Amino acid sequence: MQIQLKNHTFQVDPGQNKHYWSYINSIDWEPHTFAIFDQFVHADSVVLDIGSWSGVLTLYAAKIAKEVHALDPDPVCFHELNVNVNLNPAVADKIKTYQTAISDTQETVRLSARETYGASSSSILERKRDTENSLELKTISLVDFLENEHIQTVDFIKMDVEGAEFRILPTIGKALEKVNYPTLYVSFHYSFLNENLYHKHIPSKFLNKVCMRLENTFGFSIFKKKIRKEIAHLFDDVKAYTYIYKSDGTRISFDDLAKKPELIQETDLVFTNVEWRTSTPLSVPK
After folding, report:
1. What is the mean pLDDT of residues 145-168?
2. Torsion angle defined by CA atoms of residues 85, 91, 93 and 97, in that order, rounded to the nearest 10 degrees
3. 1 domain-assigned
4. Rounded to a whole number, what is the distance in angstroms from the first to the last CA of the chain?
5. Is residue 18 part of a domain?
6. CATH number where 42 lies
7. How many domains does the chain have?
8. Pick from 257, 266, 247: which is nearest to 39 by CA?
9. pLDDT category, 282, cuts 50, 70, 90?
10. Which pick of 5, 116, 128, 268 has the fewest CB atoms within 10 Å?
11. Is the distance from CB of 244 to CB of 252 less than 8 angstroms?
12. What is the pTM of this model?
């Protein structure tokens, strides 16, 4: 299957995700994401794609960057990632792949998924609605991963890890310092953290379903205080960055995040020491 990502063409095997790839190929998919890559990734950049899925942004980054390290612990995603890398020999030599789960520490966990692995929902945060959790894997901290793989330089990190960001970010400081604070683009999954708290505190799957439906209908949050406590120190290890941008290019501050931690429900964030040079904010679909 041939897909078009902005002005670049790639070959992919859609595998079990043909509907996703067809959707990506049929619209102007996530223009804000490509704008962020175009803004901060350059010809001499080394990119870390943490949570690469089947490789859509790995392939795009490799067209721009010097080197891409792509990580995904999901066995189906990892297989499709490698297939798609090999289908694009023009960039394949720039890409190294790892079936690796980054977290805050080294431990053994189960990887959960909504219905099946490979569908871009796999998470190390357990949730009651998940029906697949058969895979046991070992996690590793980002600093240990960099040391083990002898990665000395990183210029841009994309992190889209289905909730694991709440484990990684509070302990990411040593890794960022090791590679001189690369631009860090984080996709947040606030709802996954909320569901994880439901899983921990409400054993009944039926009550989980009813309460979450009521939350979505009426806009209240049972675990709002617990979530605030969980993310109270989420950004302590990234305070060496000069700039924080919402995914549309709007600049915000650490004070903004402290006053309204729920802001991550509305937007992904870019932490960087490089000014985002754009004249007007992008339009980002909610």
Report:
1. 97
2. -40
3. no
4. 29
5. no
6. 3.40.50.150
7. 1
8. 247
9. low
10. 116
11. yes
12. 0.93
